[in-house]
Amino acid sequence: DVESGKELQHFRVAHPFYITATRFNPDGRRALTATAQHFGTLDLGGPVILWDVATGREISRFAPHDGYVFDVQLSPDGRRMLAVLTGTQSNSNAIQIWDVNSAQRLLVVQGLWTPLFGPPAARYVSFSPDGGRLVVLSFRTITIWDAVTGKRICTMEPQKGTAKPDFLVATQFSPDGRFVLTEQCNGVTRIWNAATGRQVQAFAVTIHSAQYWPYALFTPDGRGVISGSDDGIAILWQIESGKEIRRFQIPGPGRAPVYQMVISRDGKRLIAICESARKNDPKQGVSLWDVESGRLIKQFYGHEEIVGFSPCDETFVTVNNRKPAALWDGATGEIIREYK
Description:
Distance between the termini: 12 Å
Number of helices: 0
């Protein structure tokens, strides 16, 4: 409970499984948990379980035995589940779509590529805002698929323009579904027409280290893109003109890479997280910005592993495995309460 901080429900999966991902459905009445189990040095697949949030009762379970499920997503209408699998079997690195009510598998899409180390699976595959399409990232190409028929709609392949590695590291649909954003490890963010596969725009940020992967996201109105560099700077770009609109520069010497960003649904607040914040570096941390003015509202430290704004954008929550989850005021950056 957000106001009181009291635990309302507890979901426990049976031994020897552990939870790899969780999702609410759109109305918040049900929750999904993906599970796996350790078997020696291997991670083996477990069931995906659908729970009733009010009672804690298990409603149904899905059994994608073709691999280890490391991410689950729900379609915008909550009727279909997308499971991202990896493993050693025939459908490794595959995407499966299931009917939530019947627990029947509807579709399998191959071709997903995920590096051994990297950001969460949600950065490699996602539903379009209307739920009718999927965008899927592979090593050097992005494909858009019909989420019902499994037919390929179009393919996008950036031209290699540098001697340095420039493979793709993330992709996402714009809020209106018209565009697709792709990120490359060399710091180039490209915008593509989601219907034709034609490149619309490209933006580049500074990347000094081969170990850093850039982070970029659409603004909620779909007209802009914010991309982070590895020198502690996030840049707001206008898609139509390709021009830089504003910079958000982390203050202080020795700025570290921006490895995660979250923007509020109204587009007024931006949270940028530096890599060194994960190491509890007192010089770096989480920065809360006013997007319109570029004003730094607050810097804070130690709550940086998961960040999300509330639907009303007035508050945001942070999670860190060393500290309690915390609720913050989105206007002032002051902590409201902790959840232990």
